[in-house]
Amino acid sequence: MLTRALTDVVHLRPLHTGHVDAFRAHLDRDRQRLQTWIPEIAEVVTAEDARAWLEDRAGRGDDDTAMFGLWTADECVGAAAYYVWEPAVRTFEVGAWLEERFEGGGLAFAATCALVEHAFTACGMHRAEFLIDPANARAAATLGRIGARHEGHLRQSVWIGGAPRDQQLWALLAPEWRGRERAPAGAGTGP
Predict the structure, then answer these.
(1) CA distances from residue 160 to 113, 137, 146 in whole angstroms, order as listed
(2) Which residue did the predictor score with more confidence, 5 or 61?
(3) pLDDT tens for residues 144-163?
(4) What is the span of the domain harbouring residue 130?
């Protein structure tokens, strides 16, 4: 099971239905902003909604763990997830987000690296994919730092807030990951 200290204060560990209240509290603290990038968060309002959302994402990882929380003590302040897990073609998709108060300290980078490293080294996956909103400059910067390549622009590929929106496709291959220059120790140095 993947768990990792990202900083002295923030840890990456599995997020499951036993964490419904902590997950919902996390979403409520930064809901408006998070919905800009993850519109389905608008549907996670009640404890039952949060439980269903987490259950729906279970089983998308290597050991039925697809969602990971970024935790300070017992407070969930972000998440990272395997959105797609296709072992037959050795491809997976990763996403991560944080509450605004924790942005800028390298935590999304560290969480994304942890999931990518685990998928490539422990699970034998070959291709990581990332779909982001073209306006999300922080996500693009994080992906550039891990060595992912911008592979394309998908026109009106998702429907968000009643309108079509574009996405960018970024990808990283296992040999590129293994050959990249390693991030300095303490890459995640936020609060």
Answers:
(1) 27, 18, 27
(2) 5
(3) 999 999 999 999 998 877 88
(4) 4-179
